[in-house]
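Cross-posting from the modeling subforum.

Setting up a comparison between two proteins and wanted a second pair of eyes on the formatting. Protein 1 (sequence, then structure tokens):
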Amino acid sequence: MSRNVVVTTAAPAAIGPYSQAIEIDGFLFCSGQLGIDPATGQLLEGIEAQTERALVNLEGVLAAVGLTFGDVVKVNVFMTDLGNFGPMNAIYTRHIVAPAPARSTVQVAALPLKAMVEIEAIARKSS
């Protein structure tokens, strides 16, 4: 059982004691991504911009180990306001590859940096 820490500049550096992702036994466990631009370190404004950036960041983490959204098997979406579900889901739909992975979407009281959305994923390498 080999545990590989994934680090990429295609996504923001961790802002706490965690890894961007951990690869183990053919699975990639990605930490939640916010709508932070990795070049500036700034959180984007608005649900659409934050969702798009969070997914692009997640894409960068996946690409760091040769994976794509087509390899994703589970997604968790955390939102501070489920009233924004429609706009988030419209952007999410443009990124996710069919068949869509399993997904949970939950409303939370708050997210780091006062973000509106955070998205994490689990992917599996094809054998």
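Protein 2 (same layout):
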Amino acid sequence: MEYKLTFKEYNEALKKNKLLGLKCNSCAAITVPPKMVCRKCASPDMDIVELSGNGKIETFTTVYVAAEGREGEVPYIIVLVALDEGPWIMGNLIDIAPSKATMELIGRRVKMGHKVFCGDKYSAGDGARPLFSFET
């Protein structure tokens, strides 16, 4: 079995502000980030789809102790976003100071962008991650 969408291809698309996922031909669930099989029914029969990157915040956390290589970025907010197409993904939230983050963030509409982070000793180089801002 081979990947329909590799993580490298997913990452390269993110660098171009495109969010790619996999739509299952058996149950129509969308899997993102890419996996070998459907997140819902485990079918390997999936096709690549481009997602809007729009959704709403389901929950969030503020990070005060950074992972190695991100020490200069704290504090920052990580959100779990339910995309309009169904799947949930994590990313950083901009547009609000971490000290101002309250439970009022939950349910707010956001749109996705991206940020490229430099690689560290645990990665294979630069990588893009979703970055969310409030919809206007």
